[in-house]
Write a structure and sequence with these properties.
It is globular, with a radius of gyration of 13 Å. Strands 5-4-6-3-2-1-7 form a seven-stranded mixed sheet. It is mainly β. It is built from one helix and seven strands, in the order E-E-H-E-E-E-E-E.
Length: 115
């Protein structure tokens, strides 16, 4: 399923790939060279991530069940692990440097199915 993410009138991601099965969540972006064909990976459920076996840095947003931003971490290098964010239920992984600077904790995002 492909989604589009917005904050008000601002488009955050045109194409969002969903990772909501155990297999897709486990593999995530490991071993990939880039986010080919999509802007971010939406991992659900998720309270923490690792970047083991990654080949590039990523930007991450942790969200609660209402798509409110709980935590933003920019440019996480490969072979790192985040803390666990207990209020988060999901996260979005983008290529490092992709996220706009005007996003902040507490902002609400909207998701629209595009397929």
């Amino acid at each position: 399923m492909l989604m589009k993410l917005t904050k008000g009138d601002q488009v955050i991601a045109e194409k969002v790939k969903m990772a909501d099965t155990i297999y897709l969540r486990t593999v995530g972006l490991m071993f990939s060279k880039s986010l080919d064909g999509f802007d971010c990976l939406w991992i659900r459920p998720c309270k923490s991530i690792h970047t083991c076996f990654m080949k590039y840095p990523i930007d991450v947003m942790f969200l609660d069940k209402k798509l409110k931003i709980v935590k933003i971490i920019k440019n996480i290098k490969p072979w790192r692990v985040t803390l666990m964010y207990f209020t988060a239920t999901q996260c979005l992984e983008f290529s490092g440097g992709f996220l706009p600077g005007n996003l902040k904790i507490g902002d609400n995002l909207e998701a629209v199915c595009i397929n």
